[in-house]
Design a protein that fits this description.
InterPro entries: Glyco_trans_1, Glyco_trans_4-like_N. This protein is an alpha/beta fold. It has helices spanning 20-34, 70-83, 100-106, 121-129, 140-143, 186-196, 211-218, 238-243, 260-267, 280-283, 296-304, 311-321, 324-337, 339-348; strands at residues 2-6, 38-44, 52-57, 90-93, 110-113, 135-137, 151-154, 174-179, 200-205, 227-229, 247-250, 272-275, 290-293. The protein folds into two domains: 2-158 and 323-348, Glycogen Phosphorylase B (Rossmann fold), CATH 3.40.50; 174-321, Rossmann fold (3-Layer(aba) Sandwich), CATH 3.40.50.2000. The chain is globular and about 60 Å long.
Length: 349
């Protein structure tokens, strides 16, 4: 199958540091190539891939200080994707809804994976206006605000099986990995660790939009006892950071669409203590791969009994549900089910 993979341009594929969507795009692209498919990746020029790379910008825009208007680059990419559309059996978009008007009118063989939250009023209005766009959700919870859309499947993210290996013995600290932002609630993580009497390591990036929140709300808390701010880390650092922790804290305060860090921890054999909201109950098996909690008291109690969880069973939970091989097969089934793809295949035959 000839597949176009259209990535956001904010990060390279895979990202140098933080970047959930581009990381998933990379895993999926490389696995599809490994399985023998002809994949073209539209992405930043500093991406690393075995697919055919169509560089749309010199490097990921987040790390490019000269970029003043990221949408301009995405608009040009869309035009190039449309121009080359006849070359592909399917075009897989990961850039939210930006292509919807063009895809509808040109009748592209397109599939869109939505990676973000869908509960904002403006986002709901977009999906009500384009109810025919074939979509994939990354959790069932994610699609709830626009349940009437043209959902073709829920496909959970997956990681290469050997990317992260399990640590057999738990470490002596709690881990927080992700973004410093109000919805990720690093303040909760700090309070939980301090109440439990366990050191906390925070590995996180600070986006420009969250800089004031970090300076005003979080930086003062970093001077507290047992708190270590590591900063932003890359892929190569995750095995030691996550695998060396007794547990990952995921104290979110928003409808999380997926939460890639939860399965990264799972791959390391590290259980997760997470708030029961958004996708979390779909990802974490309560009492098996982690604990689901509803408040800080529950989280502190979960820390106290985290030793009851078997880290080998946590790793098995990853292998059973969250490998890239399973993710790629799920997507291939959806590709084959698209009307535009089926019609094109018949014409070729």
């Amino acid at each position: 199958m000839k597949i176009a993979m259209v990535s956001p341009l904010f990060e390279s594929v895979p990202p140098k540091l933080y970047g959930g969507t581009e990381r998933v795009v990379s895993y999926l692209t490389e696995e599809l190539v490994r399985q023998g498919h002809d994949v073209t990746l539209f992405a930043a020029g500093d991406s690393v891939t075995r697919a055919r790379l169509q560089p749309m910008v010199e490097r990921g825009l987040r790390l490019d200080p000269t970029c003043a208007d990221s949408f301009a680059h995405h608009l040009i990419m869309l035009d190039q994707v449309i121009e080359s559309a006849p070359e592909f059996d399917v075009i897989h978009f990961h850039i939210d809804y930006w292509h919807f008007p063009i895809s509808r009118r040109v009748k592209l063989p397109a599939l869109t994976t939505l990676h973000g939250r869908l509960d904002l009023p403006e986002t709901v209005r977009v999906h009500e206006h384009f109810p025919d766009m074939p979509l994939v959700s990354i959790s069932d919870a994610q699609r709830a605000p626009v349940a009437a859309s043209n959902w073709r499947a829920t496909i959970y993210h997956g990681l290469p099986r050997d990317l992260l290996r399990p640590h057999r013995r738990p470490g002596s600290y709690l881990a927080f990995l992700g973004r410093i932002s109000p919805e990720k609630r690093p303040d909760r993580a700090i309070r939980i660790a301090q109440r439990a009497g366990v050191p906390l390591k925070i590995a996180a990036k600070v986006d420009k939009v969250d800089a004031c929140y970090f300076e005003d709300k979080i930086r003062p808390l970093l001077n507290g006892p047992g708190v270590e701010f590591v900063g932003e880390i890359g892929e190569s650092d995750k095995r030691e950071f996550l695998g060396g922790a007794m547990a990952l804290l995921f104290p979110i305060d928003w409808p999380e669409p997926f939460g890639l860090v939860m399965i990264e921890a799972m791959a390391c054999g590290t259980p997760t203590i997470a708030w029961r909201c958004g996708s979390v109950p779909e990802i974490i098996g309560d009492g098996v791969t982690g604990y689901l909690v509803d408040d800080e008291d529950g989280a502190v109690a979960a820390v106290k009994r985290i030793h009851e969880l078997d880290r080998l069973r946590v790793r098995q939970g990853f292998e059973q549900r969250f490998t890239v091989q399973r993710m790629a097969q799920d997507y291939l089934r959806v590709y084959a089910s698209l009307d535009a793809v089926s019609e094109r295949s018949l014409r070729v035959a």
